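Researcher: Structure for this, please.
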Amino acid sequence: MSKKYDFSGWATKNNLRCSDGRTILKDAFKHNDGQTVPLVWNHQHNDPLNVLGHALLENRESGVYAYCTFNDTEAGKNAKMLVEHGDVTALSIYANQLRQKGGNVEHGVIREVSLVLAGANPGAFIDSILRHGEASDEEGVIYTGEMLVLAHANEEPKEEMKEEDKKVEDKKEKTVQDVVDSMSEEQRNVMYALIGQALEGKNVEHSNIENGGEDEMKHNVFENENVKDNNDVLTHAEEEAILRDAKRYGSLRESCLQHGITNIDAAGYLFPEYQNLNKEPDFIQRDMGWVSKVMAGVHRTPFSRIKSLQANITEDEARALGYIKGKAKKEEVFTLLKRTTDPQTVYKKQKLHRDDVLDITDFDVVAFVKREMRMMLEEEIARAILIGDGRLTSSDDHISDQHIRSIANDDALYAIHHQVTPAAETPEALAKAMIRESLRARKDYQGSGEPTLFCSESVLTEMLLLEDANGRVIYDSVAKLATAMRVKEIVTVPVMEEAKNNAKDKTILGIIVNLRDYNVGADKGGAVSMFEDFDIDYNSQKYLIETRCSGALTKPYSAIVLEASPAE
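Model: Predicted structure, token format:
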């Protein structure tokens, strides 16, 4: 290989045992040998600017090695500087078509190599959930935690180390850390178990250096003359015998049993019980990507009471007139429209029993609950902005359309309500009508810039499934569909599935809007307040998160609401 590179590192290692118990087998990615894949920043695939260069993959005895080269973009230059400075020190891969048999990952296709922060990779793990069985479309991000190697000037990718070189390398003096790193996971577990058992057998006395003692250990845990009388402690000779006989007995566990160590499982060192893969529970939740799109897209003002004024000059009375000599000139007449919107408090309240707060030690349950409260508060406000909260207007918990005015239910002066009437009562016919009517409605649209289409996943799917007369898919990507519908992007909103307007007689298929035309007003800069209170009578810790805000479209005809009447 004559091509120069900027740095190299292990994309993945063979026989890599991950923290969830799965193992990457040798040659799992053999067919990627010699292939070039994109070099990406932190597995971010949503922006071409995140592509930093490319990686040449080389399948080796120990795994897949990557020779990486940066491109000349600003992002590539910045990443190169971070690597050279030692700020970024690790690689990981994104792979799909993963196939797992038992606890072993046998096959996968590397699609990209990413630079990742070493601090985010405490050990080897796969960031996915693999299906048990044969081939699948499952994807995953595999971290190894291996350090990068910088290339010297004009250095070329290195070939595999020759056997004789390996022998010379093996003869070099190894440090204690080198020996530990060379151990398998099973061997390290045995070592830790032996040390733990030895320490439990007798306290280790260290000299008090501050009081003038000698700087050395006075007791060797492996050379205790009373060891043979203590079943929980092994001598150094016994330790060596167990390790030596492991091959003969077939496993370290069997070797331990043959040497009279029967409390292997009970000790919890060699063969530990199940452990949590997550530091805290995972949320079973809807896709929240759209929430940040809404909250980041709206226009914000530091006051909650908002007023909008419009002068309607579209009527004939507002037109300029021709003058006839001798006739009186007429005054222009137009309508002045005014709308005010007051704020409403939106909140979420939660309660934890103090006993639970004290007893749950696996994770910070209070921080977990507060994060959930903040997440659900933002989702509720985003929902109210687009389609309303869906509750009955008579409900005490209803977020009023007079305070946070939903686009889907707004007045016709601000939101164009366009009827979608399919030629037949089929999903395909409805999808075709959706695209047609969105284009027809654009003639009345007066909003800012390029708008965004918000719709459900079901509606988007039906539009993407449309075929031409020859059975070929018309829109092979969401981007092409967005271009055809004259929108900047298409954002799917789970809560828009079967969403109805306030009258409950029409289904909301989609909302086309540039959220810059929607103003959210909140006093004190939109601060979200968190309150805590302790109920001494019921030994409960109570938490409240709330914000007070208003919201409304402020520009006439700045949104298009595509609606469909129910089938009769």
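Researcher: Any notable elements?
Model: Residues 176-267 form one domain. The CA atoms of residues 414 and 493 lie 22 Å apart.
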